[in-house]
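Quick look at the format.
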Amino acid sequence: MNTKDEDMKYITILPNGSKRISVRIGRGIDGKYLYDTKQLGKEVDIKEVKKLRDKMVENKQNIKNIDGSMLVETFAKKWLVEVVLAQSPNTYDDNYSKLKHHIIPYFGTSKLKNITQDKVQELVKYLTTKKAMNKKDSLLSVTTIKHIVNVLSSMMNYAIELKMIKTNPCHDIKYPKGETFEKEVYNVEEIGILINHLKLLPSQNKALYIVLLTTGLRRGELIGLHWKDIDFKNKTVSIKKAYYKTKVSGKVTTKPKSKYSIRTVGLSDLAIECLLEYKKEQDIWKKKYSSEWKSPNVFTDVFGNILSPDAVSSRWTRLVKKIPVKNIRLHDLRASYATYLVYSETPIADISKTMGHSRISTTVDMYVKSYDKYYESARNNINKIR
């Protein structure tokens, strides 16, 4: 092979001008070759294509035995980079943590092909004896154990996709009986009480928590909002990005949790009123505290710095203790809104789109089961609770 051919090794220029890189990385359990393939648009410079090609070749050299003989720890790193990294930073952090603290210490030196259903069942038994992190003298909950196995299951599904194993050993696992975590939600009466108290707060806090309560946005989606995302005339907000603060990625504004999270959600009259009131106060901050205010974000401090997600949660924790309703997590305002929509007989498909779920089944599993909590509540539209 001459130097020119070597320079374009693994790279194909397609008829439409796009570039494809295809590096053979081994054989699957069926004996057929496996390829790591990437396709890039015609606008991508060939130098960048070659850099990516070189990185893919380096990855191939670093990963041996691309079959069921690969160690769980090695494959976990591959899965994190190739699959999970493309998801939200919060999702990456959560998966990384469960792998690091629970799965790799137990299965790390085992081969993928040796992980059987019985061994996963043994993992579950082991986890029931393990203490929860940051909770003194408390064991892992059944819900947490299920989440850990779900991470392992997702990883195994990717191994099946790569034809490294044939079946997922995490299927049909039995879990011990015990208390499982259930979302706490506010019923209609409690929502009314909460809103009446929120209306008495300073403009920013009022806008923060009323918008969360009446839209079902995730915390990171709310903090990531720019003023241009809000259409005051048509009373909608467009979710195009989210703000995260994670251990792995640090502070970052990026795409929401999934492509389904990119959506447009309606705003109630009360939410519009609170946002406009808060915007006037922020305009005063701009003139008084910062001559170089450049932040486009809706929720900032007086100097234009984006609010910390932890600060928004901490404020809520202090605030809800002073209101005569049950103390629930900030994220459960989202659950309260979704469950209210279920009770209001909003079509499940519409609720799923509003919440930014990728599957309707997710909406059913997460929120429809909370329906009974609303049974005796009066059916009042969120927009009428003022």
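Next, a different chain entirely:
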Amino acid sequence: MNKINIIKLILLLTLLFGAMSAAWAEDRFYIDAVNIEPGETKTLAFNLDNSQDFYGFQADISLPEGVEIVMTGNKADITLSPRMDASYTVVSNLLSSGAVRLGTFSTSHTPINGNSGALIYLKVSADDSFAGGTISLTDILFIDASDRDVQLPDFSIDLGAVHNNSFYIPDFKISVGETKTVSIILDNETPFTAFQTDIYLPEGLTIETNSFVLSSRAAGTHSVSAKSFSDGRTRIACLSTGNDVFTGNSGELLNFNITADKDVAETCQIELRNKIFSMANAKEYLVPNSTTNVTTVELQDATSGDLNEDGSINTIDLNMMIDHIVSGTLNFKFANGDMNSDSTINSIDLNILIDKIINGN
């Protein structure tokens, strides 16, 4: 055999053994992802993906705090899948570490059927204090055709209640000088009884004092409070003296008023951060932060002089402007009264408005 053929043979053998190693590397024993609520019982599926024949296994299972294996008599509630025939027996044993060792073997040395899918089913239950955690499989040993142990990789997965919950303010538009009612929306799969969150406003937007009002989704036992901090954020807290759940799974939870002044940017953002919700059992959930896009309406988009926006400019608008100049009360869109667009409303704007009423200019 010449040198070239020897090199080709070596390359061929390298590729062959590499392919075999890759196939063996595919063997794995793992658990399907599953959600489990406090107080709920679920069946976990333990799957085997295998590229070679196996005749039994053992593995150590570690469960998170608050989850335990359901027992039937003094035995774990385990069901074998059709991948194992009637010759297979299952055993379980509690280890000093707190882990449970599961094992199966065939009395007739029959291989496990197929190359993928569930191998066994284990029933577990979560107590009322369960708050999520990790379930782990370690020391996973399968028996091959030569009765040798084949160790498969350890496996772990988060076990818990995974819900889609969002708490946010929809995007909106506002004019300079306008006071607008905005809503905070709660879309929730989890039943909540209380919450707190921090609102961060950009320069030029302010929250009207005592303007927070709960929607009909709140019970009569719910109350809401707000506190402003030196860093500019406003913290809202809502509690229920009766530990009552917010009704429904979507829609407005509360409303409040925001005013835009002359310093507001053309486009800006409001942020809701540190969203902590509580369930009736006092378990807390963190809901992701959210951002609201705010667009300021251009001054020229407003109807200059029509302070009460009734479609006409008359003495009613004049009296509203006089009242604002004298007392500082603003009960109209600032942009409608800022006749010369200098970001202030004063006697100059008053004269322009009078001229507009008399002459129609």
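The helical segments are 3-25, 315-327, 334-337, 347-359.

See the schema section for token definitions.
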